[in-house]
Amino acid sequence: MDEIWKTMVWQQFGAAIDMLDDAITLCPDSLWTAAISNDDDDPRYGQFWFIAYHTLFWLDLYLGGSQDGFAPPAPFIRGALPENPYTKADVSNYLRQCRQKCETTLKTLTDERARQICTFEWIKPTFLELQIYNMRHVQEHAAQLSLVLGQNGVAGIDWVAQARNKAE
Question: Could you give the angle at the alpha carbon of 70 between the alpha carbons of 32 and 64, nearest 5°?
């Protein structure tokens, strides 16, 4: 796959992840378990911590291209809520793992892998299209969490134009 395209997609996907990272990092303890949206199934699904985790869970899963055999790393549970909210430290660590996985996945993407069909009940895209879908999902929730922080007077949220160079 063309290096320019791989770099471009990574720069924008990484920027979306970095914006999510900023929202998680800047979230004060008082908002970590606050309900920021309504969910009829369980109110915890609408809490800040869960939306951050949910975003990373799907980021991780979609980077693999299949649900088959997928399990998030400990202490995270697939398909169930934990007894207590995940900590900011655990969610931040998961974000770092997912960010690295995303960068590696995109920078090593081959034409064959990019064209591979990924089948989910709700979508059957190519692997590359799935990653664009994935990026949009990350950005949606990064924006949602950033909006809540801004509405609660938390300063420091800003636009990230390209993936940050974490080596610096």
Answer: 95
Q: How far is Cα 152 from Cα 129, in angstroms, rounded to an integer?
A: 35
Token digits of residue 77:
């549970």
Number of other residues whose CB lies within 10 A of the CB of residue 157? 18
CA 111, CA 1: separation in Å to the nearest integer? 5
β-strand partners of 126: 117
How far apart are alpha carbons 133 and 36 in whole angstroms? 23
pLDDT in tens, 49-81: 999 999 999 999 999 999 999 999 999 999 999
Contact predicate 2/124, CB 8 Å: no
Across the chain, where does the E strand assignment appear? none
- Please name every residue paired with 123 in a beta bridge, in sequence order, or none if there are none: 120
For the chain, which residues make up each domain, given as ranges?
Answer: 3-151
Residue 159 · residue 20 · CB < 8 Å: no
- Residue 117's DSSP bridge partners are 126
Q: Which CATH number fits domain 3-151: 3.40.640.10, 1.10.10.10, 1.20.120.450, 3.40.50.2300?
A: 1.20.120.450
